User: Fold this.
Amino acid sequence: MDKANSINNQNQTIDLFALLGKMLKHWYYFVISLGFCLAIAAVFAIFGEKKFEVGATILLKDREVGSTETGELLNDAPNQGKGIALTNEIGKLKSYSLIKSALERLDFGITYYNVENFWPGFLREGWLNEIYTSFPYEIQIDSSQLQAVNTPIFIEAISDTQYRIMASNEEANAVAFTTKEGRKIFDYELKAVGEFGKPFISDILNITVNKKKKEDSDFEYCFKLTRIEDLAMQYQGKIKVQPAVEMDDTNRMLQLLINSAIDQKGGLFINTLIETYTQEGLLQKNSLGETSLDFLNREIAEKNDSLDNARSALENFRSQTGLLNSDFASGQAMENLGELRNNQAESERIIDYYQSTLTYLNDNDDYSKIIAPSSAGINQDQLFNRLIETYITLVTRLNDLKVNARPDNPIYRTVKREVESTREAIKEQLQSALASEKRNLSRLNQRIGGIQYSINKLPQEQSRLQFLQQNYDKLYEEYNFLLQKQSNAKLSLATNSENVQVVDSAKKTGYAPVEPNSMLIFSIAFVIGFIIPFSVVLIRDLSNNNITNKEELEKQVKVPLLGMIANGPKDAKLVARTLPNSAIAESFKFARINLQYFHQGGDEKVIGVTSSISGEGKTFCSANLSTAFAESGKRTLLIGGDLRKPRIQDFFDLSGPGISDYLSGSVAVDDIIQPTEFRKLDVIAPGIPQEDPITLFESARMDELIHLLRDRYDYIIIETPPIGYVADYFVMLKHFDISLFVVRYNYTNKNILGGINDLYAKNKIQNLYLLFNDVKFSAEYGYGYLSNSDGYYTQQSRKRLASNKPTVTIKNPFS
Assistant:
């Protein structure tokens, strides 16, 4: 039992060396596959569209001037923490809306191509090369009519006045660029002739073609029409924006890169994108500055009205009472009261700002109307100023993302969460500041009440004059303060400047193309060229459950291997007769020698030959092994024991009765023994086929026959039916001294051999050996069987070999 389990465990082990050997055996698969894949890679590397990297470098200035910083200019506090968020600016430069705005300034709606004319028609669309200024035709489109977009339209001149136009596609879109109307078109094919300078009108194409110069006869030409929306998405995927150096708090330099087949076109796009980005930033700064200026103008107008009213009240009181100043004993108290009232007014203004801003944040999403505290003359809280500006920046980015991002986009959701969290932080800051300011106002009111109580004891007219004078002075001071802020805001708006400095305009970053990447293409081709044959060999090996080599046989079956019989011609029968010096004849001699060596000095005479299924060559091996023994001088008898499907008669010229006739009692022993052309070899034919020969083999006459024949012959070889079908072999097993089990190369299934392992492991068959038949030595092992040394074969044997299939001289695989 342990022996059987050990055999099964060894069979389940993966032999990596065997797998490597199979790969090496099929080395030509790898050569062919690698050659093919590398050739395809070479075509892509040579004829693929060449693209160059075009780049520009810009410097984003810190927020020190310009109306984006109006709040800081109105604030006397130092400008801290107002730098540009680099990641936000990268997002703006790559935004769909900005790229679309840039493309609207360019004439990129028509893309021009040429293609080498040696490509067949069904391949030429895959090898288009973009051109820009060298296109020999000028294409003018009618934007109000339907145009086939994103479809190659081939054009060629057929005369000085006419051209041929061709296009085909299984599915495409036809769009009117002006009205944005369109429809799907399916399985269309356009072939028509047009005249230069005249409108070409069809249901999917409406253009005018003018000829600029003569075409190059080595190329064909085509063009594509593209919607601005599709172009924007294409360029959004192409453009790369990254820090020019490692990102940190001081780095403000960005690099814009794009891979373009036409470096001039790529550079034009990048420069236009930078220009558009700069102008839109400047417009945004102007808009914010004008909003701040409008607010100050309104505040100044209101303050001017209040100042006029205070001046009129003071002058009227003076004229009525004749009092010109307030010189009384409690002047100091009145001065304190004026200061407290100034603080009271300031506190009320701050509370009003906080309440209005909090209400606005609760009811609106538009950031453009929010006034920074510094713009309103409130300078106490720098943190609140920064929160307001952060909120405006985030809302601006969110609005940009709304144009080209879905609501479930991760970046969109992240920015939206930041907007909401900043809004909540502002609300919390406002509520905290509002509560604090209300407490401050309450304290001021209490102090004012105390001073007023003291002043009420003074003469009423003097108190009234003092009050009117202080109210006027307070309003006058506030009015002058707002005028100063207005002047600063106007100066900021007038001196507004761009926050972008172009360090390097767009140009090629190198002379070598970056696409196609030859190294990457050949690497991928090499990997694919290796994987394909590896997979083919591996799949073939895994799907082929037959025995294909000696190592595999020894791994599957732990029965000793007697010999390997070389592959020979399909019509070969007795190789000692037809191919006496061939590899196959030599392999039978080696098998005979090995068998005699294993049992030298013993009395093992009877040899049973069987196999697992029909077709594995047991009859062939039995007949040729018998001739090998006979030619060595041993008296040999071959018995055709397969009474169900006898084939021994195909190898010898037999007639008369056979073993079935003897076992049935109708003839004697000498009547069934027939001589052959080989002097030491006799044969007993199967005789009349039997449907159930087991009863004959179990009879006493079978025992008598074997006993009698042992005295006459040195070796008796009995061919039996396959053990996978019937039990004849096991009935005759008691007569066998040696059992040979035939396995055929690339024919015998591995699963069938499990039964032989069990029989051998449990010692149910004594002296069991394997005979590996039909082995292709040159394919499996690389042995050289055709010797070039003179004298190994006779000239006659060489001619005989040449008349059949070329074979080779055997080299003992067991030595």
Observations:
- The longest strand covers residues 162-175.
